[in-house]
């Protein structure tokens, strides 16, 4: 199978499809009860996109990946990869489909006894590619990941980022059309993470490889993925463009996950401090990707003669669009503040009145 790119303007082709997939591990739950790792997952990943899957530890992310590469079989539902229904294939045919799927891991999983070139050559050897062709492909791959000059080194002499680049070269050796990256940057520092993610973007853009990134790090998704799915306790709680899920999460679970990572809402401890120093009503407004948004906000405050001071928040960029939230201390007659909130809401603005007695934040101090 070879790498397929999508013709410009053509409708997106589905590369991976989950249909009502469930995965239960019998006897692995509390007191020998079945452990439901995934429940009723329906999901489509398009050919040529970078798709992120995020969720807390134990949410079921790795199980989902193992269902894509056929290392696990679902308890219910169907998993399609390209034209193949994995659930209907024999183990032998599943292995064949797996040949078109590359995989990179958090701990790199390189052979310590082989050189960098030997690691990249290994899958080609297994696939029966002969020596001259193998050497040519290894050189091309090492050049692509910027490690041609390290071909004869052993992995222990490389930095973490270089090891992962070898991992990527090895995963691409058999020219897969799909690359699965399971926490591939979780062991790396932020700068090296950036380099590896830039390489993954190049793999996607230049080679047309579909990439599925599994991570608990929102920054990874934010900088790399086109679309994202949020898993929470085995359930798919939200799927959408990275911008929509981050800027306007529709579910409480996705909002919690995005919120803790972006830290764009004041924590209960911060709110308590703000209350000691500000006497008005504290209200958080989500920034909208709209020309003149802040001017309209200011005008609404002014029209109702409510004073608004920004006490928390910030605006950053996501997929070249503004994202963030601003917490205001609103002072004025109670009815005027109510009128401001009603006006904003009727204008479609997301307004959160910060609860005066918030629940303690489980993430606080973590
Ligand atoms: N082979 C297995 N046998 C029994 N239980 C399993 C198995 N694989 C996963 N689980 C359980 O399924 C649930 C989901 O695990 P999974 O590893 O998919 O989550 P995750 O989101 O990838 O978490 P992490 O980020 O910690 O790896 C967990 O409760 C886990 O203990």
In short:
The chain has helices at 61-68, 91-98, 116-126, 131-144, 160-172, 190-207, 218-224, 242-247, 252-262, 268-277, 293-303, 334-346, and strands spanning 14-25, 35-46, 50-54, 76-81, 84-85, 101-105, 178-182, 210-215, 227-232, 235-241, 281-286, 307-318, 321-331, 351-353.
Structure explained in plain terms:
- With 366 residues, this protein is α/β, with parallel strands linked by helices.
- The protein has two domains: 247 residues, P-loop containing nucleotide triphosphate hydrolases (Rossmann fold); 90 residues, Alpha-Beta Plaits (2-Layer Sandwich), CATH 3.30.70.
- Helix content is 36%, strand content 27%.
- A hairpin with a 2-residue loop joins strand 4 and strand 5.
- It is elongated and about 80 Å long.
- Adenosine-5'-triphosphate binds next to strand 2 and helix 1.
- This is Methionine ABC transporter ATP-binding protein.
- One of its GO terms (molecular function) is ATP binding.
- Keywords: Amino-acid transport, ATP-binding, Cell membrane, Membrane, Nucleotide-binding, Translocase, Transport.
- InterPro entries: AAA+_ATPase, ABC_transporter-like_ATP-bd, ABC_transporter-like_CS, ACT-like_dom_sf, MetN_ABC, MetN_ABC_transporter-like, NIL_domain, P-loop_NTPase.
